[in-house]
């Protein structure tokens, strides 16, 4: 049975949003059983602002100046979280520093894991107005409601399954889809929970190449 959770939050120059993100994570973790071991790790990736300083009162911070892909950044966060936890059965929860998780986020992911799921994802609703107007907003809702549209901002995976398929790996984009695909191909039980929700920034200038911001730019250009 899952006895611990590790939350991983990559962050690059996210001083304006990281505190709100971590407060939301903390509220969500409060809904877990008191006996549940837990740790929150922020990976401050080549930050030029005070992201790390703002995060330190709310999470463990790993600051790195080495050039790493987003897959390697998430793996660094996961390995750090696992090194801080004594439990053998761990659920790794991933979100992003420009995202606020729902109060039930951690508990819902945990419930799915305890019912035999190796990995779960859920929708990433946009906070604020979708760039590009109503048409772009409608297209984004269609994408969000697509079965198993995977977001690194809302992804849980059992540590044993994560390790068995090699983690996120050194991929520069689509690390969430890559992990999900390999889990499924290896026969692990993966699925989407529409009620496990996060709210993420609708900004057009994102940190990850070909991430959510790139999608929003394409939708805005299409009008």
Automatic annotation (TrEMBL):
On the tree of life, the source organism's domain of life is: Bacteria
Q: Does the keyword Glycosyltransferase apply?
A: yes
Q: Which residues form the Glycosyltransferase 2-like domain?
A: 7-121
State the Pfam families in the record: Glycos_transf_2
- Could you confirm whether the keyword Chloroplast appears in this record? no
What is the annotated role of this protein in its UniProt record?
A: Catalyzes the glycosylation of 4,4'-diaponeurosporenoate, i.e. the esterification of glucose at the C1'' position with the carboxyl group of 4,4'-diaponeurosporenic acid, to form glycosyl-4,4'-diaponeurosporenoate. This is a step in the biosynthesis of staphyloxanthin, an orange pigment present in most staphylococci strains.
* Family the entry assigns: Belongs to the glycosyltransferase 2 family. CrtQ subfamily.
Put simply, this protein is called: 4,4'-diaponeurosporenoate glycosyltransferase
């Amino acid at each position: 049975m899952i006895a611990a959770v590790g939350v991983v939050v990559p962050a690059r120059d996210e001083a304006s949003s990281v505190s709100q993100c971590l407060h939301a994570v903390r509220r969500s973790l409060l809904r877990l059983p008191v006996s549940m071991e837990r740790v929150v790790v922020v990976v401050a990736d080549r930050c030029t602002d005070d992201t790390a300083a703002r995060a330190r009162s709310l999470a463990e911070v790993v600051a790195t100046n080495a050039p790493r892909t987003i897959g390697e950044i998430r793996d660094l966060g996961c390995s750090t979280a696992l090194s801080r936890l004594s439990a053998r059965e761990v659920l790794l929860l991933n979100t992003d520093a420009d995202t606020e998780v729902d109060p039930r986020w951690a508990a819902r992911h945990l419930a799915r894991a305890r019912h035999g799921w190796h990995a779960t994802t859920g929708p990433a609703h946009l906070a604020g107005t979708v760039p590009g107007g109503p048409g772009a907003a409608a297209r984004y809702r269609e994408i969000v409601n697509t079965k198993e549209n995977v977001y690194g901002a809302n992804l849980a995976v059992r540590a044993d399954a994560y390790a068995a398929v090699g983690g996120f790996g050194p991929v520069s984009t689509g690390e969430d889809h890559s992990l999900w695909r390999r889990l499924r191909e290896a026969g692990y039980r993966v699925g989407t929970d529409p009620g496990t929700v996060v709210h993420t920034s609708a900004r057009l200038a994102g940190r990850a190449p070909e991430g959510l911001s790139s999608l929003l730019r394409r939708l805005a250009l299409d009008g």
